[in-house]
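Question thread 4412

I'm putting together a teaching handout and wanted feedback from people who do this every day. The idea is simple: show students a protein as raw sequence, then show them the structure tokens that encode its fold, then repeat with a second protein so they can compare. Below is the first pair exactly as I plan to print it.
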Amino acid sequence: MSLGEALAWARGRVDRLDARLLLQQASGCTHVDLLTRPETGLPAPALAQFMDWVARRAMGEPVAYLLGEAEFRGRLFQVSPAVLVPRPETELLVELALARLARQPAGARLVDLGTGSGIVALSLALESPASIVSAVDLSPAALAVARNNAGRLGAAVTFYQGDWYAPLAGQRFALIVSNPPYIAAHDPHLQGDGVRFEPHMALTDAADGLACIRQIVAGAAAHLEPGGWLLFEHGYDQGEASRNLLQAAGFKDVFTQPDLAGTDRVSGGQL
């Protein structure tokens, strides 16, 4: 089977872009090869790998898990079923954090709670190199992915294994960021394409979607320096509830920032 024939076969089963990405990875060819040399034969092992990936993608498995990597802010991060697939909406959390770090002196300390693959912590470490970055996750498997990404990208991050603030006793930070589990237990989005393959504990709190956010807000005062900021991502319908939690905890300058689609995405406040 040639490259062109393989691509035509896959397009009836999966999205066109997904088919192209999977074929390029399986065969080692480039997009230019597919356009200019579609008659090139596909070796049997590569064809077998490609057909297996297409079948798994057709069942809903994310392309990022099949390829073992995904892009975030122009960098390739290793991903596995132990961590969430990076989403472009999370770039807003990074951008808001960078804006606050820009007003901090060198050596400002920050921590990313529930770091997963490390996309937020590592992006902040690489784009604000004067900051001192830590990251926490409950899952040892997720931390293994994050540590590997830090090594691959040359990001200086200190990692802790534990539940939210538990491993941070006595530590205070100028900035706390988090992309916690915020999908309610019975939300139909949990059964969406690709989502059902992602780690359940990273998606939902198995409650109303605000349980982890409540914990993060409640514990922030004990770990923020005076004037420190807390920023966290949340669901499309959780902006008002997030602001109420922040205000009740004594935060000022409380806000909710929508993403590029106009959906409430990140809330935060200053202690």
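The second pair follows. I'd like the answer to focus on this one:
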Amino acid sequence: MKGQIMDKKIIVLLSGCILAVFLLAGCGNDEVSSEYNIEYLNKDKTKIVDVPYEPEASDTDGMIKEFLAKLSSDSDNVEYRKPIPNGVEVTDYSLDGVMLSIHFDADYSSMTEVEEVLCRAAVVLTMTQISGVDCVSFYVADAPLTDIRGNIVGSMNQDSFIENPGEQINSIQCTTLKLYFANETGDGLVEETRSDVYYSSNVSMEKLIMEQLLEGPQTEGAKSAIPAGTKLINVSVVDGVCYVSLDENFKNQDYQVNEAVVIYSIVDSLTELSTISKVQISVNGDTSGTYRDNFKLSDMYDRNLDYVVSLEETGVTEEE
């Protein structure tokens, strides 16, 4: 009799322990956050918020499809808003290396400036969580996305957006850049230190450098090495390599500027950044062929200051 009572006590005790284990396991699961997030907008559409998410797909393409679908769908939480609004559709996407290109229909342009930047930030931060996707570029009606000034936005990665873009969307920073332009005769590079360069905190340094190069020099006795009318399509940095995609105007030949001067104007300016050791230049993302006679677009170019000349050598004194 005493043994039976003892057995019942043991069974009750074991049952209690098993129940406690399940309860603890349940509590623990609530606290464990997912490896992935879907970025939604808050109710007022002033900032983006992380919402943990466990994808069903495990392969890269499946996760891309699944995440894009979630970004276009309402959240279960009424406090959140989907970043890709009603009426805006993803018409296509493609993954080329580590670059994910997403194509939207023309209605993408109907968003306000703040909504568009928040949408862009949410999409990029969500998609670059996927293994094999390091940067994202946007296309609207098959044309590269441009900002309100008509400049091509180019590729974006997680570093392209500050932590809270909705609240600090107009945050302005100041920096000093060292750029390289062609001298007047086009056979050498002139170094230009550009102080007090103000830029949006949403702009990457490599993009800022390319934009400043395309604007041309401020130094007397220097001129742009890059062919006139060239526009930046994409610029991104992966593992120390900066990938620069320029439009077809880059092929316009200005034989008054040495071809090496053109290449190293870009390479030497970008490699002033400690995060960049090599540069690859493409035309509309195409790395086949050769720039003029000697520079293969498929090659990655190291820093080379052999073409840099002083202003004194060019016969020009730098303006104060």
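Top answer:
Good format. For the second protein you could add a caption like this: The first strand starts at residue 36 and ends at 42. The two ends are 105 Å apart (CA to CA).
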